[in-house]
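dumping this here so i dont lose it
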């Protein structure tokens, strides 16, 4: 497996999409270019995406969180951290702060991973790009949708709970086969089927 750090020129999908009936997102992003799960049916290998060696050469978008922050500001969203620094919000009672934050319109829901590359693929364990993206969305109080085949998502369960409290989070797992021996043939480097069910149970328990 080859890993390469790259600089992303942009991160969010260029145009706001009509929220689809499956995932209810209208913007998407990918923290990585390529995916090491090795799913034989993945459309990321198609010529449409122009990614050579999709499953063996993973490009890590090391500046993704900073790029996302800049793009969200261009779209008119405000960083909570900067807002509290530059205004009197930090002096307000906690209930008033939460009420004002929740009154802000949620104009977009961002698909954080699963569009082409899984944001919780093995490379994420060390690089933590998806984790930083989720932290950025928390700062901007913006909803997120996660589609994954990895139980690594449980690493960020407290972060997801916090984001869900101030905005909204939907976590979805792709589960193809109950028979894990057969699953290994078509998804060789993804989490096992039992691991995905267990992760789903933990996320459900966390709310």
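and the seq i came up w/
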């Amino acid at each position: 497996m080859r890993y390469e750090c790259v600089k992303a020129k942009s991160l969010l999908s260029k145009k706001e999409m009509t929220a689809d009936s499956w995932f209810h997102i209208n913007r998407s992003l990918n923290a990585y270019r390529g995916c090491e799960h090795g799913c034989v049916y993945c459309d990321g290998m198609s010529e449409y995406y122009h990614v050579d060696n999709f499953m063996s050469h993973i490009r890590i978008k090391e500046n993704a969180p900073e790029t996302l922050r800049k793009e969200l500001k261009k779209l008119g969203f405000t960083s909570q951290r900067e807002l509290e620094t530059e205004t009197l919000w930090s002096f307000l009672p906690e209930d008033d702060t939460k009420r004002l934050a929740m009154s802000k319109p949620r104009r977009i829901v961002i698909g954080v991973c699963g569009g082409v590359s899984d944001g919780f693929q093995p490379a994420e364990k060390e690089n933590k790009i998806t984790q930083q993206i989720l932290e950025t969305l928390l700062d901007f109080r913006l909803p997120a949708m996660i589609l994954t085949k990895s139980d690594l998502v449980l690493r960020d369960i407290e972060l997801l709970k916090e984001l869900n409290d101030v905005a909204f989070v939907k976590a979805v797992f792709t589960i193809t086969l109950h028979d894990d021996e057969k699953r290994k043939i078509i998804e060789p480097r993804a989490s096992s089927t039992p691991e995905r069910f267990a992760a789903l149970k933990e996320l459900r328990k966390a709310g």
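The first strand starts at residue 2 and ends at 6.
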